[in-house]
Design a protein that fits this description.
618 residues; alpha+beta; Beta-lactamase; 2 domains; 5-stranded antiparallel β-sheet; 16 strands
């Protein structure tokens, strides 16, 4: 009796409080602007968007990386949401969803009455529209202001969106714990299935989680999740959404989780593709032009920040990034470096498919971790003699039309105080171009660069995508790789593909195309060829490159193929070991050194750069 009297007293007080709230809300709205005016001035309801995962694929269309920051979400359009999902949430969260205008006055009164009678919070009164507003706009703070705002926002959302659109946003915004947002991602994460492939029991099980994601976490509290699943099935039966037979079968069906971990393979390659995506967006949308015209370093940094924000925004829209990755080649590159290099030595390799001008493999360094410093494209090192084909010999043939049978002085050379010597100090007199090239003599290269002209020779390098060449490099030591900054392994390997393209440079990339979540192409690279030198010059260079492998400094890289050519490079004190070479099918570059340059003479004798290249290309 006392309990009943207390309950009715509580109901009366709640009714008075609710009436007071209605009066206050009405007064506030009249005192200021209209509801639409207030909300239109603060919230762009027509622009409600939810992030969704982006994905990256290899050349065969296999998923290699799922990309998201904090929210794992696979966006489900309304027409892809299973009917049983709609029925489950309507039956349990908002029975009058398709009838009310954002808030359900009858449900609010009913909740007050039930909760007062029970003396506890047994039933809520928030519509799914209100829950959407909390998820998107207001958060979950329990205050008077937030609750009032929730009602007003919900009413306005109903004016701007159809019921189908609201439910779509709702089912994609709700939280399923473990960083999982939306029903689509929950299906993949907990069952490794698409939503359309779930059973009724599995749908009801997942639908249990958002009510209290921590309490109903299937990974920790699966028994509690199962109990609420049964309650949901009961509600669906009461609402006439399922039959008794369907209900009983779903109750009896065992729930077997199949947790799908985040797909994140090939960190070396994926890290590079993230960089290349930024580069592609920059070129496609004019950021690169803005950067080149920036008046100060501060202005440049501001542009870079806008570019990074743009790329992040795109990734949150659900990009499909199709790449040229060849997984077997990538794995071979990684394993080869790990096998041949001791613990204190680093290295990087790049493999390019000549047929399609595509980067099919790239390593960031031994034991590389995703988004670490990437030696494949971020490390700039002196190229040593590996620069000679590009800066010295090809310009020599092209500018002076020198016959390949001609000879060159291989004795000591001096110009002012600059007196370079051949490796080991040897003097060889007049030797053939082929002998000077394949044995990587230094003084002939210096003489050739001097004869061609430094500025003339550098016009050839300027056509290639070397980012850190400066006017301070325009000196004779450049013939031996003496540069201010040097090249990255990716830059140098790309440059050597010119010898595969009859003297033209065709830029090679890892990204084939970038699509939006609907499959429409957003970005792709322009691979316009740039003529470097004539076919005749290129034929001479291919011959010289082949002599290096046949009988020169690169014999340990020899493989069985119709054509093999390349060039070694070693810097002062053996700080860097290079070999860049090509077959008709592939061009590959290998660099070995230490992050802090130091002497590697003992390693040089073992020629790991040649062994790795051979192992990769075989």
């Amino acid at each position: 009796m006392i309990k009943t009297s207390t309950g009715w007293l509580f109901i009366g007080l709640l009714f008075l409080f609710f009436s007071f709230l209605i009066v206050e809300v009405t007064a506030e709205v009249k005192d200021v602007q209209t509801l639409s005016e207030v909300l239109d001035g603060h919230v762009k309801l027509n622009d409600i968007t939810l992030s969704t995962n982006s994905t990256m694929y290899d050349r065969n269309g296999r998923l290699i990386s799922t990309i998201y920051k904090d929210e794992n979400r696979i966006y489900l359009p309304y027409d892809e949401i299973p009917k049983s999902v709609i029925d489950a949430f309507i039956s349990t969260e908002d029975k009058r969803f398709f009838e009310h205008k954002g808030y359900d006055a009858a449900a609010i009164v009913r909740a007050f009455l039930i909760n007062a009678e029970k003396g506890t919070i047994e039933e809520g009164a928030s519509t799914m529209t209100q829950q959407l507003v909390r998820n998107v706009f207001l958060g979950h703070e329990q205050t008077y202001n937030r609750k009032m705002s929730e009602l007003l926002y919900a009413h306005e959302v109903e004016k701007h969106y159809s019921k189908q659109e609201i439910f779509e946003l709702y089912v994609n915004s709700i939280y399923f714990n473990n960083q999982v947002y939306g029903f689509g991602a929950a299906s993949h994460f907990y069952f490794n299935k698409k939503s359309k492939d779930l059973s009724l029991a599995e749908i009801a099980f997942l639908s249990a989680i958002p009510n209290n994601p921590t309490h109903y976490d299937p990974l920790k509290n699966s028994e509690k999740t199962k109990l609420r699943q049964q309650w949901i099935l009961n509600k669906m039966l009461e609402a006439g959404k399922i039959t008794a037979d369907e209900h009983d079968k779903a109750i009896a069906e065992p729930i077997v989780l199949n947790i799908q971990k985040r797909v994140d393979k090939y960190p070396d390659y994926v890290t590079y593709i993230h960089y290349e995506l930024t580069e592609l967006v920059s070129v496609s949308e004019g950021f690169d032009l803005q950067l080149s015209q920036a008046a100060s370093e501060d202005a440049k940094q501001a542009i870079k920040q806008r570019l990074d924000a743009r790329v992040q925004s795109l990734l949150e829209q659900g990009l499909q990034i199709e790449t040229a990755l060849e997984p077997s080649m990538q794995q071979k590159v990684i394993e080869s470096f790990n096998h041949h290099l001791r613990s204190d030595v680093q290295g990087s390799g790049v493999v390019i498919d000549n047929q399609n001008a595509e980067i099919i493999a790239i390593s960031g360094g031994k034991d590389f971790k995703k988004f670490d410093f990437h030696r494949g494209f971020q490390s700039y090192r002196q190229p040593g003699s590996a620069i000679k084909p590009l800066l010295v010999y090809a310009p020599y043939f092209e500018e002076l039309d020198i016959p390949i049978q001609s000879k060159i002085n291989a004795n000591n050379f001096c110009q002012g105080s600059y007196c370079p010597k051949n490796f080991g100090g040897g003097q060889y007199g007049m030797v053939s171009i082929s002998t000077a090239f394949k044995n990587s003599y230094n003084t002939p290269a210096i003489r050739i660069l001097d004869r061609v002209g430094i500025e003339t020779a550098f016009t050839y390098l300027e056509k290639l995508p070397f980012k850190r060449i400066s006017t301070t490099d325009y000196q004779l030591p450049a013939a031996l790789g003496g540069l201010t900054h040097g090249f990255s392994p990716l830059e140098l390997t790309r440059a050597y593909t010119t010898f595969a393209y009859n003297g033209s440079f065709i830029p090679s990339y890892g990204i084939r195309q970038v699509k939006d979540r609907n499959g429409d192409i957003l970005y792709s690279w322009d691979k316009t060829a740039v003529t470097m030198w004539s076919q005749g010059t290129n034929d001479k260079m291919r011959h010289l490159l082949s002599t290096v492998v046949d009988s020169g400094t690169g014999t340990k890289a020899r493989i069985s193929a119709p054509y093999v050519g390349g060039k070694t490079g070693t810097t002062n004190d053996f700080h860097d070991l290079w070999f860049v070479g090509l077959t008709d099918r592939f061009t590959a570059g290998v660099w070995i050194g230490k992050d802090t340059p130091s002497e590697l003479s003992s390693l040089y004798k073992q020629a790991p750069h040649l062994q790795i290249w051979k192992e990769i290309m075989q």
